[in-house]
# Entry
Amino acid sequence: MKDKVQPLFTEKKVHHTHFPNRYVVAPMTRISAADNGIATDRMKHYYERFAAGGFGAVITEGIYPDKSYSQGYANQPGLADENHRDAWKPIIQGVQKHGTRIIAQIMHAGAQSQGNAYKDQTIAPSEVAPKGDQLSFYGGNGAFSTPRAMNKADIASVKKAFATSARLAKEAGFDGVEIHGANGYLIDQFLTDYFNQREDEYGGVTKNRLRFALEVIEEVRQAVGSDYLVGIRISQGKASDGEHRWALGETDARTIFGDLGDSSLNFIHVTDKDGTQPGFGEGSMSMAAAAKTFSGLPVIANGQLQDPEKAARLINGEEADFISLGTSALQNPDAPDKIRRGESLEAFDFQSIMLPQADIKEQEWR
# Structure
């Protein structure tokens, strides 16, 4: 192993959780759960192979937290009740026996839902449909429907669902939870100016649009206690609008990451088209550097970081603490072990991967 990539294989402690190295499997949407959201044996194999391949941590696909409006895809796994909780236990144990951490990503799809076993309607901050069409490789077809604007009771119900799901994740044995605040799903819809046209305390300026995320974080924290690992994923681009950027650039980044840093979070996971490139225009910081600088929290960086020397520069430059891989991990579930041996990673080729079609991720940069 080259000295240049050695930082990727150093240990790191975040809050009370020890990670054996800096490599993380990024959350990638799949559609291989049962119709009722129960996790399956197929999923156990999917997750365990990353742990066996040397990854220090795995973040699950987005898991819906209630039997109401949160589900985004048919055959998406849930974590809304004890049956869901218990189905995850063998998957968690299969990952942890390799010394790898496993973190549950809790996700409410909001207006970006295209398959829900419980509701025919979608909800969102405002009556604004996502841009573009539904994702066909996840079973979607045509334009997204226009959601119903959430009232205060809906907001309270969703916050409670996140908290309940986080508690179930802890009971199941997950090492932590990641709140999905990225890629155009519900929390990101509140944060996004064109999605959020509210005139109450949840709409308007950036701080108000971030309020819902901060309240979710605090309800989750109350549910799991002070010792449990809690993070959030943040992006500018979305599954339905990959080119979106925050209107105020680094000024928005300072507000968003600064307020997240003042919350009870333990880490921030950022994703961009290229995790090393300026995130807010020419000469600006990367998303990872902005998150690190303005929050002061440990940061997971994501986005075209399959080159280990490129990834290690983020660690050495103190722009990030961890590196998450998406499609590179799909093609190379043993990527860390290959890199340790000085081997090159195979380029992602969807046709060569014997996995469900949905194993391709929703954004090309993951």
Notes: Residues 10-267+278-296 form a domain with the TIM Barrel fold (CATH 3.20.20.70). The chain has one domain: 10-267+278-296.
